[in-house]
Amino acid sequence: MKSHRRRHALTAAAVTAALAVGTLAAAAPSAVAASPSGSGRDVVQQRLNALVADGVAPGALGTVRSLDGRVRSYTAGVGDIATGAAVPRDGQVRVGSNTKTFTSVLVLQLVARGKVELDAPVERYLPGVVRGERIDGNRITVRHLLQQTSGLPNYTLHLGDDVRLYQPRELLDIALRYPGESEPGEVWAYSNTNYVLAGLIVEAVTHRSLAEEIDRRIVRPLGLRHTYFPVPGDATIREAHPRGYYRESAGGPLVDITDMDPSWAWAAGQLVSTPSDLNRFFTALLDGELLPPDQLAEMRTTVPAKEPFAAGTAYGLGLVSTPLSCGGVYWGHGGSIPGYETRVGVTEDGRAATVTMTVQAPDKAAARQLEGAVDAALCR
To answer: Which residues are catalytic?
Structure first.
């Protein structure tokens, strides 16, 4: 019983800390991890080895697809600090806010079918639901939600110590206890509440669960065999995976936080996937396999993003563009959730990279170090 209470407290602390620095945030796209035996001159392997050697993370993994179509998977460090087990190649991880891009795709598919209008008020699809101090669902549009310009407060900043199984409407109710932070459309500000509402719109219009729609419209058509939306109360990761860790304080011991009910993240960050599946998803998205040209163009229409993103990052409708050091940009999203930090990047010419480290980034420097691995993978 003591250990259970201790575990609950650690999970709560991790969730609170994560959200305080913008976790589940659309961090810049991602990179690829390494295989200890092949370090040599491979710049991606070197970057991932450095994450481990510098003590940023106990392990890292990723997959890179080059211009000629070759795919290489990487690992670095250990996958379990208790046993010393290796990081599984292309293992499953919690991918955090990369989930937002999946949710946005579902909404935009409904737009393409004439079931949802981007510039219609949220009130049309969720009548009477979005109400609060300086909050009115008649003035917030679907576009505002997907673009993070609604002005809605971020519920994850107010979860406190109550980490448990949540229903989506409970998450929204937490957010609506607080006043709106800006007028709709005026300010870009990252809020996970936007994507809870987007998920609720998907369910209201389709009369199916968000998990069913992700599986039916994205996972199965693309053959994402290792991607799934955990069922309510499922705190495990199904397939081979590295353990995920949390630090209570800078320099403190690593605590295993792999097994965690992610329902508090829902449409904003609940998915489990692998680096190769994320590369496939984002590449298919940019190639037009999931959306018609008009909706993909809307998704790629961006506004400047602020923290927690790097300078030069721009946010579309659940899709992020980030400058490359070698010129041009890459597209993706990124995700941060207790136990794992993931970045994804796909270029116009077909290069793709996803990298994960097995601890949530403790600060901006660690996040930028991970993003540097993505840049190295896509520019080499």
So the answer is: 97
